[in-house]
């Protein structure tokens, strides 16, 4: 007969033999030791199988002492049949489980006790159980300590931190020092839940009671101090560890490095890493991961790459987490090419990609406006067999919705569910947004209803999507009704909600309704004013937008950066450069640093208007305020002076940018070449300057060569067009051939320049050859080429007729 079968037989015999003699055992409770055998009259005659008495249960538990799992099953069975367990029965099973060191079973038992106590279905408080154990057992009994530690861990696991702490100090008053592993579990969970001060206070108090931390304890303390922002105190912790003879391990060092990086001090984190390394401290790859991730979070991608290269020089092999952190950084910076190169390098080293890494790449593709590539990449990944989680699917849903293929996203959601990946609120919200983008509000609300029917509670993002959809489609009343409905569902509209409604109504031409909603808001934050600035810009009411901007500015506030940029762009487009300059000055007065892109916008507008005096004044003020112009700003200024035929000033600016260490690019040189070629053309047609040309084109090309800057298609096209217009056909054809030899493909503009030039001089046959070549490459001749060809044919006929 098997052990389990004998045990069950024993179980039934015990229930049906109530006159068994009580026994004495060092593990038996006092209740059992002092009990007397019950009589048969205890049972109710009308009940076929009455509950056994507490004494019988205690006796059975004693017999099952060597079968702890069965003992617990026996106890649970009685509970299910309605047996009223007492303090003594729970004490008995606790002793058995603690004796056999079954922490998971103890945790399950204590979890049930706490749950029953919360629902007032336990005839005693859980802490009374330990009072009983204190009475029955020696305070230094190993099994008792296991039970105490188990109860603390259960409370902590249920996030009942105050109860765990109270119990910890109650046991301490009885002379019991808690186990270091239990304390570490408590400290760590407190820190993870943001209770840093509480964790540190308990740590210090327990140390006064004789608690001895281990290396992991110190690691948690370092982590807690860093979370608190106290970045120097961990140094004292390392000193204390040295005093007590505990050697920090790699996790301990990494905790400090990560703490510095999480506080946006990745530079210091890297210095500390290097110092530890010089001291031969044990550093694992995770320390480098923390620094790389820190620099990426601060968008210091060059520094992150530097750490990556450094770890390789030190012989530390990058793992998938290092690659993941750096790829994530490049993707956040929209540097897709570097992200893809790094991903390829990772694969070539035998490391497997995963759904987290590919989600970074797919999201980057979506952000830079390549939704079709997102879908294509997803299909390839799916065919490769890689597990794709809900985050990846949601990115693809968003891409499909932007492509107007919401139905495809719906079909894909079914495929997703078949793969065992559940839909959540985010997925439904993306699908709703897809329908709203198409103006299909009926289906948008259908998905919203389906989501609610399936038990998903819409969040603020979902409601904001609906509010945007309604307002952008001109449904002002419905959008405002949605606000009331949100509140009735316990979701309060936030600033973003009102912002989206205002902007949406303006874009739908409902400016009066947007203004009315704006006026109805009592608390108008900067974001709300910014929304009105954006809204008026959307409705092309630039003057009103500027008025709102000024009103906010006069109150001592400023619209957000995005709104300022939007208004600035509109002012530049409408040629109102005076207000655009004023906007920049208001930003500077408010100690808000305008971006280089904003300065460049205004510079470009001034140069386009031919107001080089104001452009130079703005450029100089930019430099005087401590800003450094970039290659784009210099190129804008150079282009402006070239347009005004002030080539010497343009070349002076070129030399100035070189002195500042700013390398000109191919666009800068293209602008200069275009300016010189147009100057040559003016000389050719001028009676006084006929036949005179400058050597600036040649010197500029030599300068490009020295700077190792190769002409691109646009640059070659400018050169070809310039030489054709000055009747230098041979040089133009030579440049065309050189362009093709360098691997560049001429575009429609290049062919137009050549064909037009040839036709103007009557070389129609050569022009037709080029036109055929162009068509063979799939390029359609535009109206300019056709017009030039017609003029060339007519001109050739006239020449032939006169001959």
UniProtKB/TrEMBL annotation:
Record carries keyword Repeat: yes
Matches recorded under PROSITE patterns: PPR (PS51375)
Database matches in Gene3D superfamilies: Tetratricopeptide repeat domain (1.25.40.10)
Domain of life: Eukaryota
PPR repeats: 179-213, 214-248, 284-318, 319-353, 389-423, 424-458, 459-493, 525-559, 560-594, 595-629, 630-664, 712-746, 747-781
One Pfam family of this chain: PPR
Domain PROP1-like PPR: 540-617
Record bears the keyword Repeat: yes
Sorted UniProt keywords: Repeat
NCBIfam families: PPR (TIGR00756)
Family: Belongs to the PPR family. P subfamily.
Name by which UniProt lists this protein: PROP1-like PPR domain-containing protein
Organism for this UniProt entry: Phaseolus vulgaris (Kidney bean)
């Amino acid at each position: 007969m098997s052990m389990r079968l004998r045990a069950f037989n024993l179980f039934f015999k015990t229930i049906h033999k109530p006159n068994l003699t009580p026994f004495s055992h060092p593990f038996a409770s006092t209740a059992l030791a002092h009990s007397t055998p019950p009589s048969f009259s205890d049972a109710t005659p009308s009940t076929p199988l009455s509950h056994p008495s507490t004494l019988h249960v205690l006796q059975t538990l004693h017999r099952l002492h060597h079968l702890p799992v069965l003992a617990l099953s026996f106890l649970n069975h009685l509970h299910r049949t309605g047996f009223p367990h007492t303090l003594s029965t729970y004490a008995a099973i606790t002793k058995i489980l603690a004796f056999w060191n079954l922490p998971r079973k103890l945790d399950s038992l204590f979890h049930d006790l706490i749950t029953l106590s919360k629902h007032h279905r336990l005839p005693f408080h859980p802490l009374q159980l330990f009072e009983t154990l204190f009475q029955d057992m020696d305070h230094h009994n190993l099994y008792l300590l296991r039970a105490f530690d188990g109860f603390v861990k259960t409370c902590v696991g249920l996030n009942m931190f105050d109860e765990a702490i109270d119990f910890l100090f109650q046991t301490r008053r009885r002379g019991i020092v808690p186990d270091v592993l239990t304390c570490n579990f408590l400290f760590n969970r407190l820190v993870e839940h943001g209770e840093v001060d509480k964790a540190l206070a308990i740590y210090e108090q327990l140390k006064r009671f004789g608690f001895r931390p281990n290396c992991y304890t110190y690691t948690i303390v370092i982590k807690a101090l860093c979370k608190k922002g106290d970045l120097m105190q961990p140094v004292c912790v390392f000193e204390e560890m040295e005093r007590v003879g505990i050697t920090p391990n790699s996790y301990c060092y990494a905790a400090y490095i990560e703490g510095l990086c999480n506080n946006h001090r990745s530079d210091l984190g890297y210095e500390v890493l290097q110092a530890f390394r010089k001291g031969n401290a044990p550093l694992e790859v995770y320390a480098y991961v923390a620094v790389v991730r820190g620099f990426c979070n601060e968008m210091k991608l060059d520094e992150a790459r530097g750490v990556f290269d450094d770890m390789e020089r030190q012989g530390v092999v990058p793992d998938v987490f290092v690659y993941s952190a750096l790829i994530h950084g490049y993707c956040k910076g929209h540097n897709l090419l570097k992200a893809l190169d790094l991903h390829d390098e990772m694969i070539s080293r035998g490391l497997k990609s995963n759904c987290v890494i590919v989600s970074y790449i797919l999201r980057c593709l979506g952000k830079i406006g390549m939704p079709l590539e997102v879908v294509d990449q997803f299909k390839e990944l799916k065919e490769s067999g890689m597990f794709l989680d809900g985050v990846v699917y949601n990115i693809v849903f968003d891409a499909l919705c932007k492509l107007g293929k919401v139905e495809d996203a719906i079909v894909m959601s079914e495929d997703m569910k078949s793969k065992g990946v559940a839909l959540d609120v985010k997925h439904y919200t993306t699908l709703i947004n897809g329908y709203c983008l198409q103006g299909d509000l009926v289906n948008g609300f259908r998905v919203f209803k389906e989501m609610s029917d399936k038990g998903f509670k819409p969040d603020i993002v979902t409601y904001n999507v609906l509010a945007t959809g309604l307002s952008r489609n001109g449904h002002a009343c419905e959008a405002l009704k949605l606000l009331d409905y949100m509140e009735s569902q316990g979701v309060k509209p936030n600033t973003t909600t009102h912002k989206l409604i205002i902007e949406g109504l303006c874009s739908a031409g409902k400016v009066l309704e947007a203004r009315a909603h704006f006026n109805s808001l009592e608390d108008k934050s900067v974001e709300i004013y910014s929304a009105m600035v954006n809204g008026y810009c959307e409705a092309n009411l630039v003057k009103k937008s500027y008025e709102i901007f000024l009103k906010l500015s006069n109150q001592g506030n400023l619209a957000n950066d995005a709104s300022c940029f939007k208004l600035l762009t509109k002012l530049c487009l409408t040629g109102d450069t005076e207000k655009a300059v004023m906007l920049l000055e208001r930003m500077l007065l408010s100690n808000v640093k305008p971006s280089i892109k904003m300065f460049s916008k205004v510079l470009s507008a001034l140069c386009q208007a031919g107001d080089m005096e104001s452009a130079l004044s703005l450029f100089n003020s930019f430099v005087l305020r401590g800003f450094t112009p970039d290659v784009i700003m210099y190129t804008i200024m150079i282009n402006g002076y070239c347009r005004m035929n002030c080539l010497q000033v343009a070349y002076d600016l070129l030399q100035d940018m070189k002195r500042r260490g700013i390398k000109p690019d191919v666009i800068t040189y293209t602008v200069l070449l275009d300016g010189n070629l147009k100057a040559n053309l003016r000389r050719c047609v001028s009676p006084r300057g006929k036949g005179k040309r400058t050597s600036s084109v040649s010197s500029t090309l030599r300068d490009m060569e020295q700077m190792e800057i190769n002409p691109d298609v646009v640059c070659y096209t400018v050169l070809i067009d310039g030489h054709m217009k000055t009747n230098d056909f041979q040089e133009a054809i030579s440049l065309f051939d050189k362009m093709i030899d360098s691997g560049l493909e001429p575009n429609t503009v290049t062919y137009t320049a050549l064909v037009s030039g040839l036709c103007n001089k009557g070389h129609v046959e050569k022009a037709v050859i080029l036109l055929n070549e162009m068509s063979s490459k799939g390029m359609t001749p535009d109206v300019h080429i056709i017009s030039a060809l017609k003029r060339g044919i007519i001109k050739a006929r006239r020449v032939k007729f006169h001959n």
